[in-house]
Specification:
The model has no long low-confidence stretch (mean pLDDT 93). Helix 1 runs parallel beside helix 10. It is globular, with a radius of gyration of 20 Å. Strand 1, helix 1 (13-24) and strand 2 (28-32) form a beta-alpha-beta unit. It starts with a strand and ends with a helix. With 213 residues, the chain is an alpha+beta fold. Helices cover 48% and strands 15% of the residues. It has ten helices and eight strands. The structure holds flavin-adenine dinucleotide. Residues 9-15, 32-33, 35, 40-42, 44-48 line the site of flavin-adenine dinucleotide (FAD).
């Protein structure tokens, strides 16, 4: 390899964006992947461009919420009994990461990474000819009642601390913003500056094509 060449392992959205940025900076880039570009996680993610996702999953108090979910076979966090012991080192680190000072460090790192991501993706998509895939209609985060919303209070406070634009919404505001939302959802937050990608797979494929031009 020449001195200005670089190899990237993985042609998901992360590898492809990195390749694009390096090529623009004058590097010769080769991306290695046995799979079709963007066909793994970058195919089925929700496409959210969330500058405000500064709150990590491991927030203070997570141990109280997680403990009951671990043993409930219908919950999203269920771990089979036989796997609890092997998974223990990971859980210890996860709980350690929920200390308030560690949460603040992680949130600061996430904030640095995510700031201006909607603008960066808008420019990138424009660059590679798929500007139509980037939508800037904001995000709605919805709850059935104020009790459920208040369980996430610490996460929302953290987002507010980092300057995220947030509007509290009631049932009437939800219906006005998105009439298709079920009546079950009664309150929440609207984040007007967040964006989304309407087809993450097409976005990855467009990037892969641009990288081979
Ligand atoms: C259900 C779900 C929803 C999500 N929603 C969002 C969202 O809305 N917004 C968001 O930002 N993130 C979301 N995520 C996270 C999201 O998946 C990632 O942000 C993004 O798709 C990760 O891209 P990636 O390139 O790291 O991974 P991938 O798209 O999985 O790409 C990794 C690539 O590396 C290749 N690879 C792995 N090992 C090797 C190897 N040894 N040699 C060569 N190639 C290798 C794989 O084949 C794959 O193509 C979501 C995740 C899930 C599971």
């Amino acid at each position: 390899m020449q001195n200005n060449s670089v190899a990237i392992i993985g042609a998901g959205i992360v590898g492809l964006c990195t390749a694009h940025a390096l090529r623009k900076a004058g590097w010769q880039v080769t991306v290695f992947d046995a799979q079709d570009p963007g066909s793994q996680c970058s195919f089925g993610n929700a496409g959210a461009l969330s500058e405000g996702s500064v709150a990590p999953l491991a927030m203070p108090g997570v141990i109280r919420q997680a403990a009951s979910m671990l043993l409930d076979s219908t919950s999203a966090l269920h771990v089979p009994l036989a796997y609890l012991l092997p998974a223990m080192p990971w859980f210890v680190r996860f709980i350690g990461a929920s200390r308030p000072e560690r949460v603040r460090q992680i949130a600061t790192a996430l904030h640095d990474l995510l700031t201006e991501s909607v603008r960066h993706h808008t420019e990138l998509a424009h660059d590679i000819g798929c500007a139509h895939l980037i939508k800037t209609t904001g995000q709605l985060h919805l709850y059935p009642d104020a009790n459920s919303r208040d369980k996430d209070k610490a996460s929302w406070q953290l987002k507010a601390d980092f300057g995220l634009a947030m509007q509290s919404v009631d049932r009437a505001a939800i219906a006005e913003l998105e009439p298709a939302v079920s009546d079950t959802y009664r309150c929440g937050w609207f984040l007007p500056d967040e964006g989304w990608v309407s087809d993450p797979f097409q976005y990855s494929q467009a990037l892969a094509r641009a990288n081979t031009d």
